[in-house]
């Protein structure tokens, strides 16, 4: 059965941090089109603080996700602090006590994260938010679970990318960009984009490990 | 970028250090570096007034900490909501047992973080009620008040709520009158040049030279229309044309007027705008009871102004007139 050890999972978070750092300016630029241009900066700041906290420490995936979540929720704020903080705290909760992360554990991690994000953000598919990335990603993952963990992860990643791209043609219904109405059409949503980058990074790391 | 910062990612931290040193007669830092409080908070028996928001709006938000106004403030990154933890810690610093009135502006991040902070407060038996400011008429149509954002009119909400709390009002009374203040306040902004978040390094929106953005938000959110740059009088006319019918403000009303610079507009020019605003109000039979002109609620170095008008009744008038001693607003009776 395809799985990886929770104990080996810290590198998934290390890779996530790297991806956010590399895309700092890209995310800020996208955000600047219809937001205030600080998305990449705040994400980079939070993820870099997390990097310092986990560096050189022996911790598993659950602990690494929890560290990331706590930094985002208690030190970063904005909209992304509570949203991504919620996402990673759920991933930590659902993986807690699981020695092996298999396709069912990861399904629970993703599904629970999305449920709680929806609870706090009140967004749905089509609102031009990270939900446009998350919901299709989960659907694709669940639909492909019979084909194996790695395949399901790859399909999740591809669906997340399509979901992210779908935000270009959407008019924002929620958050700061929603005040722009039609003027928000034609550009990517920054949250949907950072969310895709993270799901893709997680999938890539996990595929290598299973 | 011609700006005075050290590491731009730590501009807020560096600013707070200086701010607390200068205003130590009014406020102090707390265990949470992102929470400042009135030096005497929590004031025994008094409802605690808490607000918070992104940085870059000085004197808002921390500049309104002080006697008869705000007790504790949660401080965010530039243009980005404070954390839920910061709001929660601010509640704790301001709570004397009489409850907390959290008076903040309608932004997605602030809404989420306040909501999470209230859950934390519930677990510690701190009662928190909120008023969410939505005075910016350009940010959404009148029939969608829940989509309108809060701008400089928030100052009236803190002034009135803070005064009511100081007079011994209960939490419900403070909330009710703060809500009344914001319901009777309408604002609009006009932007002439954009602003730059230091860590971004370049403006994230453009206002072409020779034009102005009518209805611009406090973070450069685009407004309702881009027009050729007008004279100060024309700008005053455009702004009053938007605000007055929205409330509506009518002949016989008494009002408070606030013209706030957005950061880079000389105060001199703000007075030129005010002068015409007052004339227009006088022509319409609207009496100015009190007025404020200056950099009360800025957006880094954005060029432009916001105009906020509050319609008074007897209760609001008494509360607006009360003494206040903060860094951003000082008012004494002689």
UniProtKB/TrEMBL annotation, chain A:
Which superkingdom is the protein from? Answer: Bacteria
Q: Which UniProt keywords apply?
A: Glycerol metabolism, Kinase, Transferase
Pathway assignment: Polyol metabolism; glycerol degradation
Its UniProt entry gives the catalysed reaction(s) as:
dihydroxyacetone + phosphoenolpyruvate = dihydroxyacetone phosphate + pyruvate
A GO molecular-function annotation: glycerone kinase activity
Q: Which Pfam families is this protein grouped with?
A: Dak2
Under the subunit heading, UniProt states: Homodimer. The dihydroxyacetone kinase complex is composed of a homodimer of DhaM, a homodimer of DhaK and the subunit DhaL.
Alphabetized PANTHER family for the sequence: TRIOKINASE/FMN CYCLASE, TRIOKINASE_FMN CYCLASE
Q: What does this protein do?
A: ADP-binding subunit of the dihydroxyacetone kinase, which is responsible for the phosphoenolpyruvate (PEP)-dependent phosphorylation of dihydroxyacetone. DhaL-ADP is converted to DhaL-ATP via a phosphoryl group transfer from DhaM and transmits it to dihydroxyacetone binds to DhaK.
State the name under which the record lists this protein. phosphoenolpyruvate--glycerone phosphotransferase
Organism this protein belongs to: Anaerotalea alkaliphila
Q: What is the lineage of its organism?
A: Bacteria, Bacillati, Bacillota, Clostridia, Eubacteriales
From TrEMBL, chain B:
**Presence of the UniProt keyword Manganese in the record:** no
> Is Repressor one of the keywords UniProt gives this record?
no
Give the DhaK domain ranges.
7-329
Question: What GO terms describe the biological role, i.e. biological process, of this protein?
Answer: glycerol catabolic process
Query: Out of the domains of life, which is the source?
Result: Bacteria
Name of one Pfam family that matches: Dak1
The residues the entry assigns to the signal sequence are none
Q: Which GO terms describe its cellular component?
A: cytosol
What are the entry keywords?
Kinase, Transferase
What is the protein's given name? Answer: Dihydroxyacetone kinase subunit DhaK
Q: Give the organism the record lists.
A: Anaerotalea alkaliphila
């Amino acid at each position: 059965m395809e799985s990886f050890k929770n104990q080996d999972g810290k590198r998934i978070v290390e890779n996530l941090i790297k991806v956010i750092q590399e895309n700092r300016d890209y995310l800020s630029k996208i955000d600047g089109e219809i937001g205030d241009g600080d998305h990449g900066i705040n994400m980079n700041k939070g993820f870099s603080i997390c990097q310092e906290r986990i560096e050189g420490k022996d911790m598993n995936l659950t602990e690494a996700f929890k560290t990331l979540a706590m930094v985002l929720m208690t030190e970063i704020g904005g909209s992304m602090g509570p949203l991504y903080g919620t996402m990673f705290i759920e991933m930590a909760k659902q993986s807690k006590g699981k020695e092996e992360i298999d396709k069912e554990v990861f399904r629970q991690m993703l599904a629970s994260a999305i449920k709680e994000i929806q609870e706090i953000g009140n967004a749905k598919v089509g609102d031009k938010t990270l939900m446009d990335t998350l919901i299709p990603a989960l659907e694709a993952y669940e639909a492909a679970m019979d084909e194996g963990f790695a395949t399901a992860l790859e399909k999740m990643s591809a669906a997340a990318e399509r979901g992210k791209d779908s935000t270009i043609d959407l008019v924002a219904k929620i958050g700061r960009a929603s005040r722009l109405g039609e003027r928000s059409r034609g550009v990517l949503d920054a949250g949907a984009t950072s969310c895709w980058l993270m799901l893709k990074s997680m999938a890539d790391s996990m595929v290598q490990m299973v | 970028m011609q700006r005075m910062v050290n590491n731009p990612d730590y501009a807020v931290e560096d600013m707070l250090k200086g701010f607390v040193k200068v205003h130590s007669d009014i406020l102090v830092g707390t265990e949470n570096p992102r929470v400042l409080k009135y030096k005497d908070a929590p004031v025994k028996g008094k409802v605690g007034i808490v607000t918070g928001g992104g940085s870059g709006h000085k004197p808002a938000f921390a500049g309104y900490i002080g006697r008869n106004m705000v007790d504790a403030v949660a401080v965010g990154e530039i243009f980005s909501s404070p954390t839920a933890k910061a709001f929660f810690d601010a509640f704790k610093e301001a709570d004397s047992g009489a409850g907390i009135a959290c008076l903040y502006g309608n932004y997605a991040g602030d809404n989420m973080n306040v909501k999470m902070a209230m859950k934390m407060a519930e677990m510690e038996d701190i009662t928190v009620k909120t008023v969410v400011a939505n005075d910016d008429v350009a940010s959404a149509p009148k029939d969608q008040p829940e989509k309108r954002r809060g701008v400089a009119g928030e100052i009236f909400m803190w002034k009135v709520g803070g005064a009511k709390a100081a007079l011994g009002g209960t939490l419900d009374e403070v909330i009710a009158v703060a809500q009344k203040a914001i319901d009777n306040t309408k604002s609009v902004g006009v932007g002439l040049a954009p602003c730059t978040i230091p860590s971004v390094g370049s403006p994230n929106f453009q206002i072409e030279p020779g034009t102005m953005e009518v209805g611009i938000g406090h973070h450069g959110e685009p407004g309702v229309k881009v027009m050729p740059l007008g004279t100060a009088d024309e700008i005053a006319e455009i702004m009053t044309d938007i605000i007055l019918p929205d409330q509506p403000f009518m002949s016989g009303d008494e009002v408070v007027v606030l013209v706030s610079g957005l950061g880079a507009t000389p105060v001199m020019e703000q007075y030129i705008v005010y002068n015409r605003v007052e004339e227009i109000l006088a022509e319409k039979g609207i009496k100015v009871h009190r007025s404020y002109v200056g950099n009360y609620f800025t957006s880094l170095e954005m060029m432009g102004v916001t105009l906020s008008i509050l319609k008074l009744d007897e209760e609001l008038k008494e509360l607006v007139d009360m003494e206040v001693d903060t860094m951003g607003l000082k008012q004494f009776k002689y």
